[in-house]
Amino acid sequence: MFFLKRGIGQMGQIRFHTSYVTDVEQQRLRRCYMVGMEGIAWERELRISEKMLIIDRSTHESGKLFAPWLRVDGVEVILSTSNLREQETAYHLEVELARGTLNRLRNYLANRDQHFELSVAYQSLLDQSQQSFMNAVLPTDDRESSQGHAADSIETALELIELVLLEDAGHAVEVRYQAGGIKPLIGIEMSTVPESEQSQQQIDETFNTVTIPFNWRTLSPDTDKFNFDEIDSPLHWALQHDKKIIAGPLVRLTDESIPEWMYLWENDFTAFQNYLVNYVSEITQRYKGRVHVWHCAAGLNSTTGLRFSEEQVVRIAVDVVETIRRIDNKTPIVMSFDMPWGGYAADRRTDLSPLQFAEALVRGDIGLNGIGLELNFGDGPHECGLHDCLAINTLMNRWSQLQLPLVLSVSTENKPILPGGVEHDLSDRGDLDDTVDGLGADLGSNEVANLLMVLASQTATQAILWNQLSDTPDRRAGLYAGDGQTKPLINDIQRLCKEQLGI
What we know:
alpha/beta, disordered N terminus, TIM Barrel, about 40% helix, 14 helices, single chain, 16 strands, 5-stranded mixed β-sheet, 2 domains, 8-stranded parallel beta barrel
């Protein structure tokens, strides 16, 4: 039996029958969480025993369950149920995920029908998904059969979601450009300049923007002493190649970003503020006039290596913006937020969802000119699970209500080049999956390009930034493999920019 204890008080309980029975599958269910009407994940206890998932919460409110789903191609996506209330009998997990997915799709199509008639082929997929779901909910003692029908309904619905959202994205981009809307910036994070001249040329031809991250720990190994050599090299390259430059994020409150010497002051918030202001001032004075956007901070909503309170973190956010604005009152300032669905709140207490955190800063009118969303898909500590295109579209619509331009940092593990260096064609989805052994969890480059197209179609999207240049041993989310070989993704991004976005 798997048991995750969170120390929840008086509990409300929701139970699910499930076919997730192997150890690997049970580990996957560790990432399940529930949210209420305000979109904040509840702290919870999880138990799995005898094909039963039990979720205990400190509330009796109804809510939605978010759970990982392993697609038939081996890619894991996060799905949600419809709103569920407590009841004596257990729900069927697969059936409820199918109901939630199908309901989201039908609601979207109902609004979409006002503009576009559903094609015969798409209607056939919808009918197929609905029929599979009806078979899943028919009274039967054969639970495995019901779960199989639910799985079929989910897979068909996910296929239709990608097709419809991609088609609608194409229409939206066309309408946006016809109305005189600006084309989004397409950028790449570049902490170092690639050694290969070919790679440099590819980057130059593909991207009009470069984002240069700042790591406080490496830039300031000693108290109030700085070394900016690692910043100057990519900055010089970007200026030489006439790229828009996004500087930052300047501040992250992670263990990897906070200087080691700063932990001497972890119980002195005033001292931390003084060192922070000095660091941000040094950067702003040095690079003022040479960058086009200040990415002032990232992930403050979810991470604090120094265990600051939410009130203190909000104060830090204000300090960073005010410091930049005091020295540079012209360059736009963006602050980004990670894990935007807020699932991290299930594992630690928080009073604000990511959107509420951002909204508080926007309402405070502290001088932000844009909002960043970090869509780094994966299962790492600073990553979020991959969601389908419809869920991402819905998320974008919610964040667009802040009435500020959106800057999107994106990354996900993606497939390498085929054996023999054969490039993967955007129109060919099957060959790569069949040829590359054991990499089914990685997205094909075409699927990533489709995701970027959906993001680019949003009116509020001002920039899309790919967040990893090269693969690392821990994460294959780069445009280049660890040995420097080009992966298919950069070619598909280049094609997307030229053929569909007109960049």
